[in-house]
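Protein in question kept underneath.
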Amino acid sequence: MKALKFNNTEVSLNFTSYRNNGTLAVQMNTVPDKDLYGVVTVNLGCPLQNDTRAFVDENNLPGIGKWLKKHGFATPLGYTQRSGFCKYQLYEFHLPF
């Protein structure tokens, strides 16, 4: 995957899965050193999560949803789920890149 700018940092996305349920997990890494910049998704254990759908963490990465949509990586599905004091929106990721 090619590097793109997020908040003035060159990043790339890494797609993997959560160990406990096998659903999609997305990490953002810096380029070229591949350090973890942030975790894009959260694992809420919701049955709507699968290998292409995941909840996006706008709380720790403000603007990430808009960035994902702008670059064609994911589309919001209009469903949100609350965990604690935070709300997370469900996205459909367009894999592979």
Notes: The longest strand covers residues 74-83. Strands lie at 4-6, 9-17, 24-30, 36-39, 41-42, 53-56, 74-83, 86-93.
